[in-house]
Amino acid sequence: MSQGLPAAGSVLQRSVAAPGNQPQPQSPEDDDRKVRRREKNRVAAQRSRKKQTQKADKLHEEYECLEQENTMLRREIGKLTEELKHLTEALKEHEKMCPLLLCPMNFVPVPPRPDPVAGCLPR
């Protein structure tokens, strides 16, 4: 035994004994069993923490991918909205001079169309 260091069993006995109770003598088999159980528990705890960290990392990566996809989709919505406005304006300009629409024989009263842009924009 090294000088100044308590025996391995005495540390375990002191930590296990409740205040006011008499510490029970421990056999070397009991000490070995406790050491093995603690080591097994330590390894299991490490494994659990590693698994939890991996799960958090995976969720973070998924979050970042979804954020990128969301940004791309918002840009696409903006481009499509602008294209819709442009095409709607072009249609209005065309209707002003379309010979088919200007000919009295082709005139059929049509109720006014709702604004197509308003129905497509996100709310």
From TrEMBL:
<keyword id="KW-0539">Nucleus</keyword>
<keyword id="KW-0804">Transcription</keyword>
<dbReference type="GO" id="GO:0043011">
    <property type="term" value="P:myeloid dendritic cell differentiation"/>
</dbReference>
<dbReference type="Pfam" id="PF00170">
    <property type="entry name" value="bZIP_1"/>
</dbReference>
<protein>
    <submittedName>
        <fullName>Basic leucine zipper ATF-like transcription factor 3</fullName>
    </submittedName>
</protein>
<dbReference type="InterPro" id="IPR004827">
    <property type="entry name" value="bZIP"/>
</dbReference>
<keyword id="KW-0678">Repressor</keyword>
<keyword id="KW-0805">Transcription regulation</keyword>
<dbReference type="InterPro" id="IPR000837">
    <property type="entry name" value="AP-1"/>
</dbReference>
<dbReference type="GO" id="GO:0005730">
    <property type="term" value="C:nucleolus"/>
</dbReference>
<keyword id="KW-0238">DNA-binding</keyword>
<feature type="region of interest" description="Disordered">
    <location>
        <begin position="1"/>
        <end position="60"/>
    </location>
</feature>
<dbReference type="GO" id="GO:0005829">
    <property type="term" value="C:cytosol"/>
</dbReference>
<dbReference type="GO" id="GO:0090575">
    <property type="term" value="C:RNA polymerase II transcription regulator complex"/>
</dbReference>
<dbReference type="GO" id="GO:0000978">
    <property type="term" value="F:RNA polymerase II cis-regulatory region sequence-specific DNA binding"/>
</dbReference>
<comment type="similarity">
    <text>Belongs to the bZIP family.</text>
</comment>
<dbReference type="InterPro" id="IPR046347">
    <property type="entry name" value="bZIP_sf"/>
</dbReference>
<keyword id="KW-0010">Activator</keyword>
<dbReference type="GO" id="GO:0005654">
    <property type="term" value="C:nucleoplasm"/>
</dbReference>
<feature type="domain" description="BZIP">
    <location>
        <begin position="31"/>
        <end position="94"/>
    </location>
</feature>
<dbReference type="GO" id="GO:0001227">
    <property type="term" value="F:DNA-binding transcription repressor activity, RNA polymerase II-specific"/>
</dbReference>
<dbReference type="GO" id="GO:0009615">
    <property type="term" value="P:response to virus"/>
</dbReference>
